[in-house]
Amino acid sequence: MDEEYDVIVLGTGLKECILSGLLSVDGLKVLHMDKNDYYGGESTSLNLNQLWKRLRGDEQPPEYLGSSREYNVDMIPKFMMANGTLVRVLIHANVTKYLNFKAVDGSFVYNKKKIYKVPATDVEALKSPLMGLLEKRRARKFFLFVQDFDESNPKTHAGMNMDTTTGRELIAKYELDDDTIDFIGHALALHTNDSYLDQPALDFVKRVKLYAESLARFQSGSPYIYPMYGLGELPQAFARLSAVYGGTYMLNKPQCKVEFDENGKAIGVTSEGETAKGKKIVCDPSYLPDKVQQIGKVARAICIMSHPIPDTNESHSAQVIIPQKQLGRKSDMYLFCCSYAHNVAPKGKYIAFVLTEAETDNPETELKPGVDLLGKVDEIFYETYHRFVPTNDGSADNCFISTSYDATTHFESTVMDVLSMYTNITGKVLDLSVDLSAASAGDEQ
């Protein structure tokens, strides 16, 4: 391989595929390699036989579960906020033509041992059984403030400086009780812990507003959308985009080894005795293990069921967030459910996940509070995976490494990592100022 590439991307996980697509659109010469013979890396979707082989080592799943190829089981299950950043990236890159989305039926929160629909507007606050009458009125006032909030118009800031007022101070102004704060902070603003309470309130308010705006987009029971046939469609859509703009793809390339010069800068990748030269290397943590450190692990249960999650209004697709305080934990727990309605399972079958940032070495015990909410399951698998973050300076060694996927069942943290990497690689910020109302990204199929 005599030619030199601007960027060599290793791994076909979702983050790497988004980056190769965006960099190709920018006119960079991109080579994309993967040691696997399939797209998606850690974020792939598996059919039933692949799932069994991976987690049971047994090629033959029971016949009553139906056809293997009708299953698309996401290994990193996440929904997209309808007005969120990932949808803006999809529209910016014009990959929506390769994808069909459908709204997710329900968004729920666990509170005092029960599952409730997440109220996100002043109207929903007044109807919600989550709160007593006086609290409903206080919550309604808070939601009206958020709905009217305009970052560029100080008259909508209720006399507060949103860059210095903390989340805690903002909430105190509306006298909301702890349970209300819990569901607003974790199920609407999607914070994974309570540190946001002591940070400037601007980000918190913008997150709650994004949730409400996403909810209004389809008038469905949730602010989320999800691709038909599962998330495995996303990496392939960005791979197609990269190819259209001249990107080169090579799957099933064993032992992709990053080569460095005497100054410790990456200069290319060797596989099967051939070296491709590249100015910059983009990869997931598995390709450069000596440049990452472990920061935790995710515990998950993967369940096949014949019914929706109980108490979710018969939702074929739903997210349930269990805030950390409700279980006396340091991190939230997430329930994710999808079904044949999104073409990820045969008719009558549902795929559910229970995920959390692991705090023990016993996933079965740790995930029990979430698994118990699922009702009867046909099959259940437990698994943990380690989470890594890069420790290197990409500008010094030309290596740009993604962080591992977290336990959240929404894409907000994932896409922020992609945008940060894009800026580090190109030196510019991706312009995502698209008109979502005119775009077709979430068009319900």
UniProtKB/TrEMBL annotation:
GO CC terms, sorted: apoplast; cytoplasm
Domain of life where this protein originates: Eukaryota
Keywords: GTPase activation
GO biological process, one term: protein transport
Gene Ontology terms for molecular function: GTPase activator activity; Rab GDP-dissociation inhibitor activity
Pfam family, one: GDI
UniProt cross-references to InterPro entries, sorted A to Z: FAD/NAD-bd_sf, GDP_dissociation_inhibitor, RabGDI
Keyword Ribonucleoprotein attached: no
Family note: Belongs to the Rab GDI family.
Function: Regulates the GDP/GTP exchange reaction of most RAB proteins by inhibiting the dissociation of GDP from them, and the subsequent binding of GTP.
Protein name: Guanosine nucleotide diphosphate dissociation inhibitor
Species whose genome carries this gene: Sesamum indicum
Protein encoded by which gene: LOC105172631
